[in-house]
Amino acid sequence: MMTLQRHRGYRFGSGRGLTRPQMDRLAEYFQMPPQNARGRLGGRTGAQTAEIKGLGKVVIKAYFRGGLPGRVVEKTYLGIGPCRGRAEFEMLSRIRAMGVDAPAPLAFASKGRILQNTWLVTRQIENARTLSELAIADATAAKQIISAVAGQVRRLIQNRILHVDLHPGNILVNDCGRVYIIDFDKALQTRDDTTRLRQRYVRRWQRAVIKHELPLFLDPLFRNNIGE
Q1: Mapping DSSP to helix (H, G, I), strand (E, B) and coil, where does residue 182 land?
Q2: Please, are residues 204 and 166 in contact by the beta-carbon 8 Å criterion?
Q3: How far apart are CA 107 and CA 120, in angstroms?
Q4: Using CA atoms, how far apart are residues 54 and 223, in angstroms rounded to an integer?
């Protein structure tokens, strides 16, 4: 069940509805310039953290355009079909129901009709760092959690879900060693069989490790743990 609301020119969507103060507060953050993705692995999104009464600590993610169009109009899209914020909100809800550990989606918002901006609000994973950061700082700890990462990815594969940009920068590890997969922007249900889908995940992971000069042990450990 999804609740859709309009407030101050924004269209909000959430599971249980948002209060006016919550929407007002979120709108203030929407108007702020988002921070760039941290670390060696960036992306077409920017995020900022906030604490919203009744929602707790959240991450507010703004969507950027990539490639040549993004150099001209960075954050505006043609308003055709579901906004990217809503699409990722729905995908997060779906994969969490499958047992995949990912941030809880709280709300999404968009503004504009023909030209559109969009945002996603998720619960913050506290005291976490990316697997790429962990691998550089503590190789032993990183090696110990690769099997847990692969287990989460196998669950996506079993359900024919393609995370189009899976790499060590999109894996969060909290201080208890629990892993979360983030950034399901443009993720999709695919018709690929499990063998082909597994190969796509392995190739994307390997390219990221090499391109961003991450510790090389990340590649064979992931490949070996994800199975055949």
Answers
A1: coil
A2: yes
A3: 6
A4: 41
